[in-house]
């Protein structure tokens, strides 16, 4: 059976493309990544390199500091980021939440017809990430798919839901279940999509919390916090 890292390389970063682009992008790479160098090599030619490098640093910090808890990604689409996260921490449980059928109509504005992210499936994501007991798919609608995880801890949570209501519901669920030092990452924080839905949800939720937002200079405007002690 192929390892998660092998699958990530083979399906996402073809060798020919990597060899062609590497000389052009090498100047932007980290010289001393804290996460395994072979995993860093797998993201070197990615268009959104800075986001993946940031995620890699965060997960490695979780491992180095032995922060307890599972990993979670909400909004996985085809599982590319999921495969990367699993390769970084194969011994941690990784929960993957998605409808695997695009946006729920209940969360879209009246009259909207947004058909993005429908070109995926549970089987496609399982194949890409790898069939491991540590990878748990939770298909369906957030927050309904969070039911049953009330006793779980999460050391790293990545939110990529694009819409306000499920994003806010996820923040309310995960924040109290992240131990001190754990990471909560918000994709699309500095993205005007859905009237700045992710930024509005994150800012509103954190208004009375001790953590401050750290913004990342990646393609889609990621932001994150580490849980205070």
Features:
single chain; 229 residues; globular; seven-stranded mixed sheet; Rossmann fold; 8 helices; 14% strand
Strand content: 5-15%
Q: CATH H-level name... which superfamily?
A: Vaccinia Virus protein VP39
* Highest CATH level, the class: Alpha Beta
What is the CATH architecture assignment? 3-Layer(aba) Sandwich
- Strand line-up in the sheet with most strands: 3-2-1-4-5-7-6
How many domains would you count in the coordinates?
A: 1
Based on secondary structure, the structural category is alpha/beta
H/I helix tally: 8
Mean pLDDT: 88
Number of strands: 7
The arrangement of helices and strands along the chain is HHHHEHEHEEHEHEE
Euclidean distance between termini CA atoms: 40 Å
Overall 3D shape: globular
State the CATH topology. Answer: Rossmann fold
What fraction, in percent, of the residue positions are helical?
Answer: 25-40%
Q: Which regions have little confidence, pLDDT < 50, spanning 5+ residues?
A: none
Question: How does this model look, in words?
Answer:
Helix 1 (4-12) runs antiparallel to helix 5. Strands 3-2-1-4-5-7-6 form a seven-stranded mixed sheet, with helices on both faces. The chain contains eight helices and seven strands; from the N terminus they run H-H-H-H-E-H-E-H-E-E-H-E-H-E-E. It has one domain (4-226): Vaccinia Virus protein VP39 (Rossmann fold, 3-Layer(aba) Sandwich), CATH 3.40.50. The protein is an alpha/beta fold.
What's the SSE blueprint?
Blueprint: H1 4-12, H2 15-25, H3 37-43, H4 49-64, E1 70-74, H5 80-88, E2 94-98, H6 122-129, E3 135-139, E4 154-159, H7 164-174, E5 183-186, H8 193-206, E6 214-215, E7 223-226
Parallel strand pairs: 1-2, 1-4, 2-3, 4-5
Antiparallel strand pairs: 5-7, 6-7
Helix pairs in contact: 1-5, 4-5, 7-8
């Amino acid at each position: 059976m192929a390892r998660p890292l092998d699958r990530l390389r083979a399906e996402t970063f073809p060798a020919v493309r990597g060899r062609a682009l590497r000389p052009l992008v090498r100047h932007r790479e980290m010289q001393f990544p804290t996460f395994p160098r072979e995993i860093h090599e797998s993201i070197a030619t990615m268009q959104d390199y800075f986001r993946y490098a940031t995620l890699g640093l965060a997960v490695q910090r979780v491992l180095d500091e032995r922060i307890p808890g599972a990993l979670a990604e909400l909004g996985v689409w085809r599982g590319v980021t999921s495969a990367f996260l699993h390769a970084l921490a194969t011994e941690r449980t990784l929960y993957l939440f998605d409808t695997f059928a695009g946006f729920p109509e209940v969360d879209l504005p009246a009259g909207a017809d947004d058909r993005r992210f429908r070109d995926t499936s549970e089987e496609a994501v399982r194949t890409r990430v790898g069939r491991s007991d540590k990878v748990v798919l939770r298909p369906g609608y957030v927050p309904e798919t969070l039911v049953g995880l009330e006793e779980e801890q999460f050391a790293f949570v990545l939110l990529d839901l694009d819409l306000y209501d499920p994003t806010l519901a996820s923040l309310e669920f995960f924040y109290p279940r992240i131990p001190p030092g754990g990471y909560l990452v918000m994709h699309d924080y500095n993205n005007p999509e859905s009237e700045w839905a992710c930024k509005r949800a994150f800012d509103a939720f954190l208004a009375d919390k001790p953590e401050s937002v750290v913004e990342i200079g990646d393609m889609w405007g990621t932001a994150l916090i580490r849980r205070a002690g």
